[in-house]
Amino acid sequence: MAYKLRRSRIYVPGNRPRMLSTCGLFGADAVTIDLEDSVAPDQKLAARWLVAEALKELDFGKSEITVRINSLSTPWGMKDLEAIIPTKRVEVIYLPKAESAEDIKQLDSVLEKLEKENDIPMGQTKIIPILESAKGIWFAYDIATASDRVVALSFGGEDYTRDIGGERTPEGTELLWARSQLVAAAKAAGKQALDTVHSDISDLEGLYKNAVMMKKMGFDGKAAIHPNQIPVIHEAFNPTQEEIDYALRVMEAIEKAKASGSGVVALGRKMIDKPVAEKAERVLMIAYLAGMIKEDELPESIRESIVKEGE
Amino acid sequence: MKIEKEVTVGTEEREDLLLTLKPNPEGGIKIEITGKGAWQFKDEIRSAVESVLKEMGVEDAIVEIKDNWAFDYTIRARTRAAVLAAMGEV
């Protein structure tokens, strides 16, 4: 089971050298270098080349390197790709304001061309569309399945609320359907679901509560706009000790049943069906990738898939 | 290539620099470096700027730099962006 840890990603404004040079130290699962909303129109050119040079030079630690480009319908989106893809460092492109399968197919074909021109293995650059409008949310499944490059769907809550003519509330009721739809579409397509930012950087308690709820809703991670938010998001999205213990018991029961040739797996008086087994595998994989359990504590079946992925 | 338009890129923030690129009516490349890192890294800054100008084929320009401890990649990026901006790119 291939699993990429995407609990947190930190947004870094693309035109701020000091933030670019330090963001790899924050310990986020990904850095998202931003060329879009945090860069004023008259700074787009300067930011684009700063990011391109930074990508060639800087160490981003263990964080996945992702860049939020400008939409391809702006004068900047294509130029962003032409500047950053040749650096061969970009793992994921975040595409803002994705509203249709066509938007993804267009980006896919540009990436294909740039990969070919720059001797980058075909399909290496992944895509995470940001759904931040009513239309984007409505067509979530089409967007998620438009290209094999799409590895997750990401939600943009502020713009979505504006687009539907709603109002942000502390409870987030206005986002409930969109979040549910995004998760269902992503999971139906076999992709991850990533939640929007928590804008109040001083409210770490509110962030934690929200992130715990998003994990329960099926999200795999959440965006951060301040380094202080990263450990809070990790704590919320990491499995609890209880979840890990239960997952280990599930996997043990499965292996015992397999060894005894029994087709029926039970844990106590509870039947273990496929979704329960898959959840247990996912919990253990996240716990392992998050450093909560060691490789030798994992059931053999999961250890094997880690080796395969590393090859 | 001659620079015919004045442009400024960058900021005065730490690890950045403010770079102004101007036409040089007398011809040739003239680079003036001030700011916090200038006393220590003038030669390195000059060499980074010159290499980008050469790569981009710029032969006549005045470059004014106010440095605030910018790294090499930032100096190169700001120089490249200034030349492209002077050429009208967005």
Task: Describe, in plain words, how this protein is organized in 3D.
The complex is a heterodimer of chains A (311) and B (90). Chain A is globular, with a radius of gyration of 20 Å. In chain A, the strands form two sheets. Chain A has an eight-stranded parallel beta barrel, surrounded by four helices. A two-stranded antiparallel sheet of chain A has the order 9-10. Chain A contains 13 helices and ten strands. Chain A has 311 residues and is α/β, with parallel strands linked by helices. Chain A folds into two domains: 8-237, Alpha-Beta Barrel (TIM Barrel); 241-310, no CATH class. By secondary structure, chain B is an alpha+beta fold. Chain B has one domain (7-86): Ribosomal Protein S5, domain 2 (2-Layer Sandwich). Helices cover 37% and strands 29% of the residues of chain B. Chain B is built from two helices and four strands. Chain B has helices spanning 38-55, 72-86, and strands at 7-10, 16-22, 29-35, 61-68. Chain B has a four-stranded mixed sheet with strand order 1-2-4-3, with helices on one face. In chain B, helix 1 (38-55) crosses helix 2. Chain B starts with 6 loop residues before the first strand and ends with a helix. The relative contact order of chain B is 0.31. The mean pLDDT of chain B is 96. The interface between A and B is medium-sized, with 20 and 21 residues.
Find the count of extended strands of chain B (DSSP E, 2+ residues): 4
Structural class designation of chain B? alpha+beta
Mean pLDDT of chain B: 96
Q: Class by helix and strand content of chain A? A: alpha/beta
Q: Strand share of the residues of chain B?
A: 25-35%
| Overall 3D shape of chain B | globular
CATH class of the largest domain in chain A: Alpha Beta
Report strand order across the widest sheet of chain A.
1-2-3-4-5-6-7-8
Measured by residues with Cβ under 8 Å of the partner chain's Cβ, the largest interface is: A-B, 20 and 21 residues
Assembly category: heterodimer
Mean pLDDT across all amino acids of chain A: 94
What's the β-strand tally of chain A?
A: 10
